[in-house]
Amino acid sequence: MSIATDLDGLPYAALVKWTVIIGLGTVLCIKLHQIYSQRQSSLPPGPPSHWLWGTPWPKSYVPRYYDKLAETYGPVFTVWNGGTPAVVVARHQVAQEIMTKHSIDLADRPRTVAAGEVMSGDMRILLVGAGERMRRLRKSLHALLQPNVAATYEPIQMKNARNYVLDILERPDDFLIHAKRYAAAFILEVTYGKTTPTYYTDKEVVHINACLERLGAALRPGAHLVDTFPILRHFPGYLSTLKQHHEDELKLFGGQMTHVRSALAKGEVRPCFATYLLENQEKLGLSDNEAAYLAGSMFGAGSDTTGSALGVVSMAAACYPEAQARVQAQLDKVVGCDRLPTFEDESQLTEVTAFVLESFRWRPVTPMGFWHKATKDIVWKDHVIPAGTHVLGCHWAISRDPEVFPEPDTFNPQRWIDDRGHIREDLKFPNFGFGRRICPGQPVAERSVFINTALVLWAFELSQDPTKPIDTYAFRDRPIAHPEPFHVTYTPRIEKLQLKKILDSH
Q1: Residue 433 half-sphere exposure toward CB, CA atoms < 13 A
Q2: For the residues of 35-101, what is the DSSP string, one character each?
Q3: How large is the angle between the packed helices 175-192 and 154-170, nearest 10 degrees?
Q4: What are the b/e assignments for 280-293, b being 16+ CB within 10 Å?
Q5: Where in the cell is it found (predicted)?
Q6: Which residue, 32, 143, 144, 465, has most beta carbons within 10 Å?
C-alpha cells in the first residue's frame, strides 16, 4: 500500500500534520545538505575521492605519497576516509600554525576500531581518545618520564650503550640486532626491573615484538574496512582474529605484571615503572588491565622506536663520511681516546647532538605520524577544518619541506648548528609528535640515541662496502619504520684490545 493511499483516508487535521512533518523534514534535509556542502567546500583542496569509499590509498609508503600530493595541492590538503574528511599537514610552517597553535583542539584521536578498540581494548595510550582515561594514563606516565626523572636512567643507558659497542666489536655484521638488543634491555630494566642479560631472541622479547608487528599491520591505512565502516564490528566473527590478538597481548602484559607483583612481595625487584604502578595503582585510578597495558605499551613503543633510530644513525654515518668525521673530530678533542664519552660531555658535543637531530629528520622513525581529531572548528587562512575532522601532521612530508630544510634528501647535521657553534633554538622537527599528544618518552629516547651515537662514533669508523651499496630508502612500510638489512663496515678507531679494556673498565 502506498503512502498516498494511506494519506487519502486520513482526517484533514492529520493530513495537515503529516504535510507539516514532511515539509519540515525536507527543509531540514536541505539545510543539513547545505551545511555539509559549505563545510566540505571550506576544507583545503585534495585529490578526487569516491563518494562511498573515500580517497584510494596507495599500496605502500603512504607518507611519500602525501609528500607528492603536497606538491600538487599545497601544504595542507584533504583526503577522505569513507565519508569522513581527513586533513594532512605536509609542510613545516603550517604544522606550527595548525598542529602546534591548535594543540588543545587536536588533543583527541580518531576512532580506530581494529587497532584501538579491539586489538588494544581501548587501553593503548597511543590510540586512546581524549578524556578521563587518557588523563589517568598520561599522569601515570609523566611521573616516571618527565625530564628530571629521565636523567636518573642515565646509568642504565650508559651500561647498555657500552654493551652495544662491545656487541658490535664482537659481531659487527649483526649491528641492527645489537641496536634492538640495546633498546629491549634498557626498556625492560626501566619498565619491569629486569637486570639479567637481555637478548633479542629471549621469549618475552620475541612475543612483544610479535604483538608490535600485528599492531603495525593493523595501523596501516586501509588495512581494515571496519575503520571506515565501524558497523562491521557487529558482524558475527568478523573481528575474531583481532580479538584473539587482544587476549594474547593482555595475557602477555598481565603475566609481566604478575611476575613483578610476586617479586615485589619478596623484595626481589628493583624500583621500576611496574612497581610504581603497582604501589600507586589505587591513587592513579588504574584497573589491573590498564596498568598492565600501560607498562606493556611503554616497552613496545620505547624499544621499537629506539632500535629503529639507532639503525638510521649507522646508515647516515656510513653514507655521509664527512658528517661522521666532524663528529669524531669533536669527540677526539673533548673526550680523547682514553675514556668513553658520557652524558656529562653532552654540552660540549654539539656535533653529536646535531647528528642525532638530523637523523631524526632525514629518516623519521614514524614517517606517517599519527592521526589527531579536531574537537573544534579550526580556521586556517580561507579554510575551515570542521570539528570531527581527522588531522595528520605527516612527519615525512614535513621533513622534506625545502623552504625549511634545503636539499632535504641530503643528510646535513650542520643545518642544526648556528654561527656560534650552538644548537639552533629556532629550528624544530616534530619527530615525537605534536602538542598534547607528543610522545611522553621523548626525554628518555633522546638520551638513548645521544649516548649510543656518541659511543659508536667514538669507537668506530663506519663505512659502506663498495660491493654492497646502501639503499637509504629501503625501510619497512610500518608506522615505526625500521631500515631493511644493510651492510656497514665497522673499523675500530682504537686498537681492539685497548678499546675492549676501556669498555670493560667502565
Answers
A1: 20
A2: HHHHHHHHSPP----BTTTBSPPPSS-HHHHHHHHHHHH-SEEEEEETTEEEEEE-SHHHHIIIIIT
A3: 150
A4: ebeebebeeebbbb
A5: Membrane
A6: 144
- At residue 466, the pLDDT reads 92
Query: Could you give all domains of the chain from N- to C-terminal order, each with its CATH number?
Result: 43-505 (1.10.630.10)
Cell of 334: 673533548
The residue to which cell 679494556 is assigned: 501
Q: Is 29 annotated as a binding residue?
A: no
- Find, among 122, 136, 126, 275, the residue nearest to 193 by Cα: 275
pLDDT number for residue 399:
98
Handedness of CA 357, 491, 162, 178 (dihedral sign): positive
Residue 83 CA to its chain's centroid (Å):
26
Q: Can you list the residues of the chain whose pLDDT is less than 70?
A: 1-41
Instruction: List the grid coordinates of 408.
Output: 632535504
Determine the pLDDT at residue 3: 43
Burial tier of 461 (Cβ tally within 10 Å: 0-12, 13-18, 19+): middle
Given the DSSP bridges, would you call strands 84-89 and 390-393 parallel, antiparallel or unpaired?
A: parallel
- State the CB neighbour count (10 A cutoff) for residue 76: 24
